[in-house]
Amino acid sequence: MFFDTRYSNSPPFGDTVSLTGPISFANPWATYPGGNPFPALDNAPKTAAFPLEGIYVNTPLNPKPMYLEQWNLSVQKQISSWLFGATYLGNTTKHLTTSYEADPAIYIPGTSTGAAGSCGPVMTTTALGLPKSGAACSSTGNTNNRRLLYQQNPSQGVYYSTIGQLDDGGIANYNGMLVSAQRRSKSFNMVTNFTWAHCLSEAETTELTGPSYLVPPSYNGNGRQLSYSNCDSDHRRVLNTTFTAYTPKMSERFVNLLVHGWELSTIFTATSGGYATATLPTDVALSGEGAQIANIIATPYTGARARFGATNYIASTAFAAPATGTYSLQRPLTLALPGSYELDMNLARNFKVPRTDSQSVQFRWEVFNVTNEAIFTGSPAGSTSSSTFGSFTTTGNPRIMQLALKYNF
Questions:
Q1: Is residue 402 part of a domain?
Q2: Average pLDDT over residues 205-213
Q3: Is the residue at 39 inside a domain?
Q4: Which is deepest, 34, 134, 171, 309, by most CB within 10 Å?
Q5: How many structural domains does the chain have?
Q6: What is the maximal distance between C-alpha atoms in the chain?
Q7: What is the mean pLDDT of residues 303-318?
Q8: Structural domain boundaries, residue 332
Q9: pLDDT tens-digit map of 118-153
């Protein structure tokens, strides 16, 4: 229900209009063709205006529904009081919802002479996007005049800018191995499992707002396939272990009062890191799309992995922009982030209230992140021009302890 919400924000029901400065506050629409576009929205829909350079989304008339195929093979073996298991897990997703820019700006090479035709047959005057003599034909200043629809039909293309187009041809794949071991007894229980897996996906979208993969078909027919990379949720190795031990009953009364009935529980989790993408701070392709991927030209990792690499984990000097008017063929989500682990523990005991049958007091001491390890969250990548690029700026919870008494009656 949420996926298509952008339709309610598109013209003529909702408009987004951008102006370039300088802008007069006394008459902000003085330079906008046709004047103020918004009063028309107060009229009936049949008279609602379609503004210039409107922002839209579009869905094919008969999109194919996404579906998932999954399979597994499991083997278990009991040896004495131990149970061992190994499982292969696999699935594939067909018709994954992706999206692309249907109206990108087309890069026009060369330099303007100021004369009609020097930058193509459409941009013939300054008002129609032709740069001044000596300026490059393509720049961020004439993005909308270079858009695909404008180049095909200037009189109608002027009403469109970016168009987010649904593409239902995406795919995803997951293959994993899960091994486990568990033992249950009167004195202790232990369950441990280890997952070694790899998730691969084309750049999916959860809301049709714009392109999920950057290279549009008008530039490269394999644009969607160029986004096939690690899933944004991919963690190759995950280890989970839970252990619970119970103190035995002692024959000596006073020793038994002190020792018997204690329960110690632990949860240990270790996981390899996810993946991030380094993006360019400017529109190098001059297509009107943001967050374009940077080329990796050197080993990006600095080795600053103390406490899982708090600062300068990735060097911005390891990245460069592709040639002007082109996209990088670097796949997204290829920068491996550091792993993390966490140990949580709990110590508890029930004390029976004397001279009662059903009343007791429970003491509980819980400690989360026992080692007080810095568990970094978020991504250190993003725009290579960011002052925080390569550094983790947020962390998970530090060590937290809590004590509790509970009276049962």
A1: yes
A2: 91
A3: no
A4: 309
A5: 1
A6: 104
A7: 66
A8: 235-409
A9: 999 999 999 999 999 999 999 999 999 999 999 999
